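DM from R.C. (forwarded with permission)

"hey, sorry to bug you on a friday — could you get me a structure for this? deadline for the figure draft is monday and I only need the backbone to look sensible"
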Amino acid sequence: MTAVLQPAGGRRGIARRLRERARGLFGGASIQGRLVRNFSLAILIPALLTALVGAGVIRQRVLAQAQAQVDSDLEAAKEIYRSSLDRLKNAIRIHATRMVVYGALSRRDTLGLAEEMDRIRQAERLDVLTLADTTGRVFYRSRNPNGADGSDLTDDAVVRAMKELSPVASTEVFAADALLRETPTLARQAAMTIAPTPRARPRRDTQITSGLMMMAAAPVFTPAGRHLGVLYGGTLLNRNYEIVDKIRQTVFKEGSYEGLPLGTATIFQDDVRISTNVRNADGTRAVGTQASAEVTEQVRDRGGDWTGRAFVVNDWYLSAYTPIRNLSGQTIGMLYVGVLERPFTHILWRTLLAFLGIALGGVLLVHVVAVRVATRISQPIHAMAEAAQRVAHGDYSQKVPAASHDELGHLARHFNAMMSELERAHQVLRESADELERKVAQRTAELEAVQAHLIQSEKLAAIGKLAAGVAHEINNPLTGVLTNSSLMLEDLDVDHPWREDIQTIVTETLRCRNIVKGLLDFARQTKPQRSLISMNQVAEDVLALVRNQANFRDIRVATDLDPHLPAVLADNDQMRQVVLNIVLNAAEAMPTGGDLRVSSGPDPSRTGVELQIADAGPGIPADVRARLFEPFFTTKKSGTGLGLAIAYGIVERHNGQLKVDTTVGRGTTFTIALPIRGPVDDD
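My reply, with the result:
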């Protein structure tokens, strides 16, 4: 038999081709490798996230439903507990009406009472059955007939039954000496050592000697209605498992999981389990163990319910706790029901593993499909990349086959049309450049306007400081000249040759004083005293002030004031000064009469108001318009050139604008624009 030997080089060649194929599929440089990798990641990551989120959602809903069921189970447990109390109260109420009971109290003789009291206690499964008189002193104890020592019964239930003359039932704590007076057996049943418990609150004492008693009391009457005393009885809950086992049997059907009770119930005295079907690790009932610290704080200390995940003895349970209160409303214990968490956790883990298995299967399937799809996509893209490289070197004759009708075919056709679009793209770029230049020019104009406004403001501030200094220096000697010349004028006769010259001095001095006053007003820049004012009212007040002046006789005033104009935060007197100045200027611009129109309304942005004062004068030339708000610039023979400068400063201090719109030969319109809210401060 002949063996066929393969050369070693052939085996190495096969291995090399396999490595190259692997690099092609998973390499970072090729499109094919990236497509395969990205396809795989695209399904792997969402699948894992879906599995985790799905498991989390399922866990949350399952545990929420289980917790809701536990809350419902707690209500059932509370009802069973209340039913036991009601049954006890009804039994004591009925037995308190027996003739042997009220007869013994009436005769103050226990003859024949012992047998009946024992029968009642055993029939009702009571641990305590005691008869007391109206003073609260013990008349007869069924468990300790010789213990009727006449001691007082101070239990709340007995006291209330005696006071209200009606049956009552409650859960009370019986001290060790009270249990001993009934019978030492009850004291031994109640006493238990507190076992160390994980997550429990540390306690100083190591055992409890008192007992938690479910008890009832009912008044005893004769048939004639005479009150003779009270009959009370009770059942000690310490190591009495009747109620907790009844709750488990009724609510949880005694189900189990891995040898542990699926559902459990417990009665606590303080934070110690005194009756429970929760098991220790050795299978015994976990009496003497404690509740966790967080449960004790919420239920025992604060007196509220507690629901949620809790550590119970040695395992986690979905739990619900409610306080047990005595007749005075004090929390003396807790009632608990819970379901073992472990079954739900195991179900959730199995669900998560199932999700992950499905996700991994999907990843493998997608990987196989991705390899085939990546190969079909990468080949035409590679051909297109080579053609683009030749075009980049100046060979624009390249054409890419565009036989397919999918996205790659569309890409090839667009590639072939790319060259014809280059010129159009250059044209678009040139138009964009022109548009950019236009916007730059527009922005430059806006910046120049802002700069001019800043220069104007700085100019006004500088001139204001100079004006203040000059005015103060001139005012003192000017006052002396005016005073002395006025006195001289008064002393001269009417026909004195100096009188006309002195009169000229007084007149010109008064004119200088007015100029100085204008300088001081301009330089002072009084801080506005702002309040909410109506610009309509300001305009109407000014028009009423000037309407009867001589230079307004031939002027027709028309108003168009918006009745819904918002109020603005401004200085009323300063705004009147601004409006008065503009109105007087408008009147002076129409010496032979004309139309003066005052209108108001909100600005276009609805954040401010505008007051417009329009005249029908000759308009303002461009050279005058440029210097309109400069101090001391005036075209009037007797003007100071400060009126508009002061008005401009006032409006600017209100964060507003004083705008002028003028046309030579057609009139001028001044617009006072003020914000509704006003400036933040007046610094």
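R.C.: lifesaver. Residues 252 and 263 are 6 Å apart (CA to CA).
me: no worries. Residues 1-9 have pLDDT under 50 and may be disordered.
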